[in-house]
Design a protein that fits this description.
The chain is about 50% helix and about 10% strand. It is an alpha/beta fold. It has 2 domains: about 1-165 and about 350-365, Rossmann fold (3-Layer(aba) Sandwich); about 175-345, Rossmann fold (3-Layer(aba) Sandwich). It is globular, with a radius of gyration of 20 Å.
Length: about 375
């Protein structure tokens, strides 16, 4: 299995643990090093009890082409040496695409965990990664019925496609009891009261790589902190841009804004579940918010998780500071929204996707 970024660790953990239950399965984990900051990598291996990688490629940062090329060269050497029965690639990161391309070109079967997602926004690197990965994979593990339909439109159908459910639902089912035990300490550390703060996570290039856009988002945060506390877990990429453009000082001056480095998975679940709403551009956070019945405002023009848009559980907004503030205000003022979200059927499965994936792998290989 090839992983390299924070969301991959989370969605891979239940599959890894399920595979390790079988004595006839030899699992080897390759870490590309796409996320190399300790708070984006090491903490997850500890919290999720993941085995140590047999190899860390340590590719580090760089342009998409540079990073992907480095990964492909090193992954090819590794898979040719190890000759695996299948190479598993989860998600839609550069690590996902590099693993799928290198393995398939070397003649090894590829299994894509979380196949079939589409935002139909080709300006997103993740959309390019997921489309190409799907089309060079042998086994496609689709998390939702929508994902299965997306694949069928592109000519990818059974016997290559399997509706398994979402492995992040598995991770959530396993981790949530532990996260809830930390609730008091986590909220206490940030001096927070349940549902009296907005949680913010932002990292996508469309939001943080252009000065004008990040300045607008900064203005948005300065607006909403006038009436509710803001907890902003700042991705290293985002922090670098805020520092470089002199925007972070404006946020630091506000007592109602808490700036934090990225937190571990359990701490993030606790902050998310107890927030008034979450503002994000992350696909995984949209999904986790839906499963935790937390209102979500997504700072994007589209989403690969259209299931979350039902009943206003998730709202898309990609406008100026005023329109983003208005979206958050409407969510916070809707007293019945959580109840409506809770009543919605969960499209992400029953928390046993990893078991289905393992059974499919064992029966096909």
């Amino acid at each position: 299995m090839i992983v390299g970024a924070r969301p991959q660790f989370i969605k891979s953990a239940p599959v890894i643990h399920e595979l390790l239950k079988h004595r006839n399965v030899e699992l080897k984990l390759i870490h590309t090093g796409q996320h190399y900051d300790p708070e984006m990598s090491d903490v997850f291996f500890g919290e999720l009890d993941l085995p140590s990688p047999v190899l860390n490629l340590a590719v580090g940062s760089g342009s998409h082409a540079t990073q992907t090329a480095r990964m492909m060269r090193k992954i090819e050497t590794c898979v040719v040496r190890e000759a695996p029965s299948v190479v598993l690639v989860p998600g839609d990161t550069n690590s996902t695409l590099a693993g799928a391309l290198a393995a398939s070109k070397a003649g090894f079967p590829v299994g894509h965990v979380e196949a079939g997602l589409r935002s139909y926004d080709m300006s997103m690197p993740e959309e390019i990664n997921r489309r190409l990965t799907d089309h060079c994979s042998t086994l496609l593990f689709a998390p939702t019925r929508t994902a299965v339909r997306n694949l069928a439109k592109e000519g990818l159908k059974h016997p290559a496609v399997f509706l398994t459910g979402d492995t992040m639902a598995d991770s959530l089912r396993i981790a949530l009891p532990r996260a809830r035990k930390q609730r008091a300490s986590v909220l206490g550390r940030f001096d927070l009261n349940p549902q009296q703060y907005v949680l913010v996570t932002l990292h996508r290039p469309g939001n943080v790589d252009k000065y004008a856009r990040l300045k607008e988002i900064t203005s948005f945060l300065l607006r909403i902190c006038r009436y509710i506390r803001v907890v902003f877990t700042v991705h290293p990429r985002t922090r670098g841009r805020l520092d470089a453009w002199g925007l972070i000082g404006k946020l630091r001056k506000q007592d109602a804004i808490v700036l934090s480095p990225p937190v571990g998975y359990l701490e993030m679940l606790s902050l998310l579940e107890n927030s008034g709403c979450v503002v994000t551009d992350s696909g995984g956070v949209q999904k986790e918010a839906f499963m935790l019945h937390v209102p979500c405002v997504t700072i994007r023009s589209g989403t690969e998780w259209p299931e979350t848009l039902k009943s206003g559980a998730n709202r898309l907004v990609f406008g100026n500071a005023q329109s983003m503030s208005l979206a958050v205000t409407k969510v916070l003022e809707d007293s019945g929204l959580r109840r409506r979200i809770r009543a919605l059927p969960n499209p992400f499965g029953d928390g046993r996707a990893s078991k289905r994936i393992t059974e499919i792998l064992l029966s096909n290989l």
